[in-house]
Every structure is written in C-alpha cells, then in structure tokens.
From TrEMBL:
Gene: nadA
UniProtKB keywords: 4Fe-4S, Cytoplasm, Iron, Iron-sulfur, Metal-binding, Pyridine nucleotide biosynthesis, Transferase
Residues annotated as binding iminosuccinate: H25, S42, Y120, M121, N122, S141, H234, P235, E236, T251
Chief place of localization: cytoplasm
Binding annotation for [4Fe-4S] cluster: C88, C208, C299
Protein name (Swiss-Prot/TrEMBL): Quinolinate synthase
C-alpha cells in the first residue's frame, strides 16, 4: 500500500508539473519528504516558496509555517496545508487576543519604558501583526539574539513570545540571564508587575512540548554511553540541555552540522525524532543517535500530515479543486509582513 500511495503522489506531481511546489519541513516523515522539492527549516521553506513561480505551494509542515509562506509569496500564489489539524501547540500558547490583554498590564507595569515585542516565527499571523503594530519584529531560532539587539536599540525592554526557553537561551547568549522575568498568563500569581518593572527581558510562559522533554540527564547519559559523542540540540530545549550540548541551533544548523561531520564521528541529536532519522539515513558514514533514544520526541502536530492527505490535496488540484487553503486575512497579512521585513533587515 505504501508504494501504491507513493506512486500515486509521484503521478500527481508529474501531471501537475511546475504549477505545484511541495515543501517538507525537516520534521516530516520520510514518506512525505521524499516527495518534497525542498526540505528545510520553517523560514527557509517560505523563502523557497517566494522564489518560485509555482501557482500552488503545498506546505507539509504546520499552520504557522503555511501562514508565513502565504505572507511572503505573491498574491497569485496559493498555499495549501494537507491537514488543517497540523497546528503547533506552542504557537497556540500566545493567542493575539490574550497577548493584547497582557500587553496592557505589562506596559502599565513599566510606564516610563518602551517595550518592544519580539515574536518567534512559531506564532500565528495575528500575533506577528500585533508585534509590527507595537514596533516589534519576528525572529527565528537562528537570529533571535540579533532581533533582541535590534529591539534594545529602539526600546528599554523586550517582551519575547511564545517560547520561554528560546528566550532564556537568547538572554544567556547576550549576557542578560539575570535580567529576565517570566509572564505567565495562565497563573494568577505569575504576573508580577514588580518583576516586569525590574527585568530587561520578559518571557512569555510558552514552550514546545517536544523539546521540553529533553533533560540534562539525557546528555549525560549519551556521553557516558558514547564518550566520543558530540551533542547538537535545538534552542527550544531547556537551558540545562543547551548548556550541556556542544552545538545549538535551528533545524538547518542541526542538518548542516551533521552534513559537515567527518566519517566516523558520533552525533547525538536533540530535536524531533524524524530529523534525527533523516540524518542517520542521509549520512551513513556518521554515527547519528537520537538523544533520549527514540522514546518520545515526536511532534504530534507535524505527524498530522499523513501521506494520504498529501495525496488528497494533490488529487484535488488535478481535479481543479483547491483543498485546505491557508490564507491570512488581508490587512493582517500586510501588518505581519512588516514584522517579517524588519527581521530581514537585521
Ligand atoms: P526550525 O525553524 O528550526 O525549523 O524549527 C521549527 C520548529 O517547529 C522547531 O520545533
Ligand atoms: Fe511546534 Fe514543537 Fe512541533 Fe515545532 S516541534 S511544530 S515548536 S510543537
């Protein structure tokens, strides 16, 4: 059945030709990425979409990525997401309405200061638009430190959303680890105006439930079992994990690190399991081991992109039907684009 489905996807791709671009995020399963024109990290894929002339972009990833692709592609390009259930829980932890309410409290806690909101790419378009309106910008896991510097050139304080771990890791990188406070919108005790007033970096209480599962013990254990192992992790991991690793970076950095490794080296991969599996397959001369075995580091949102849904969306296009279109509302799209453009300036 697997090869039948694969043949069907390949036949649909053949028939549709250059009209359709298929993008696969690094965390997608093998049966998806083998049909993708490009495999990459969240922002690089959107850029690929913008560079292409394809009428349709089928984004095998999660909703916020498809939205970003819609924001930066031309108006006559249509972005499709094979499953509408593929939504990153972390992006959902900072809803624009909720942030808007928190913003009033946070700005009231520091009335004499200029606060610049910085949102991670892993957020919805309405939050990106909000950040643009408040003088802020978007960042990726590769340029968060530069985004913070940009913000501190223009304001006194940064509010970083939604990932507190990426925020904390970035604060460390900038030597500002002692200047942070966490704003927890779900906890009545978690909104301390005095702490906000004192801190230079306010971190929203959001996290990735995949990367948060990595623990420092996993790094210790892998080093015990493989004394020559190098460890590379994503900056959505907890501070202790990042501190114990050799390299930290986006899914592109992780991919490049293993691609550049010498034959015989051992690399333990602290990110979503599918990327670790791809790297093991793509680089057989390198010993690639998932950090924490292959127990639990599977992103449920990414997993929603079942190859049957990819087939369904491609079959729809063959029949002239646009299924699962992701379209950011006009107005919001232009505002979110401002926050993305500011990122490109840094
Ligand atoms: P990248 O932008 O590094 O690809 O990460 C996306 C993501 O969802 C990480 O969990
Ligand atoms: Fe979201 Fe984490 Fe999944 Fe990435 S791995 S899409 S941040 S839940």
């Amino acid at each position: 059945a697997e090869s039948e489905r694969s043949k069907r996807i390949a036949a649909a791709r053949d028939e549709l030709g250059d009209d359709v671009l298929v993008l696969g995020h690094n965390y997608q399963r093998r049966e998806i990425v083998e049909h993708a024109d490009f495999i990459g990290d969240s922002y690089a894929l959107s850029q690929r979409a913008a560079e292409s002339d394809a009428d349709y972009v089928v984004f095998c990833g999660v909703t916020f990525m498809a939205e970003s692709a819609d924001i930066i592609t031309d108006d006559d390009q249509t972005v499709l997401l094979p499953s509408m259930e593929a939504s990153c829980p972390m992006a959902g932890m900072a809803e624009a309405l909720q942030v808007d309410a928190a913003w009033a409290e946070i700005t009231a806690a520091a009335p004499d200061e200029t606060i610049i909101p910085v949102t991670y790419m892993n957020s919805y378009a309405d939050l990106k638009a909000f950040c643009a309106d408040q003088g802020g910008l978007v960042c990726t896991s590769s340029n968060a430190h530069r985004a913070f510097e940009w913000a501190f050139e223009r304001g006194d304080k940064v509010l970083f959303l939604p990932d507190k771990h990426l925020g904390e890791n970035t604060a460390h990188r900038l030597g500002m680890a002692d200047d942070t406070a966490v704003w927890d919108p779900w906890d009545p005790e978690g909104k301390d105006a005095d702490e906000v007033a004192d801190a230079d970096i306010v971190l929203w209480e959001g996290y990735c439930q995949v990367h948060e599962r990595f623990r420092k013990d996993h790094v210790t254990q892998v080093r015990d079992e493989h004394p020559d192992a190098n460890v590379v992790v994503h900056p959505e991991c907890r501070r202790g994990v990042v501190e114990a690793a050799d390299v930290v970076g986006s899914t592109s950095t992780i991919t490049d690190t293993v691609a550049d490794a010498d034959a015989g080296e051992t690399w333990a991969i602290g990110t979503e399991i599918h990327l670790a599996n791809h790297l093991a397959r793509w680089h057989p001369a390198v010993e690639v081991i998932p950090l924490c075995g292959d127990a639990c580091m599977d992103c449920n949102a990414m997993r929603q992109i079942d190859p049957n849904y990819l087939t369904w969306v491609l079959d729809g296009l063959r029949e002239g039907q646009e299924r699962n279109v992701i379209e950011v509302a006009p107005g919001e799209k232009e505002r979110a684009a401002v926050a993305l453009d500011r990122m490109l300036e840094i």
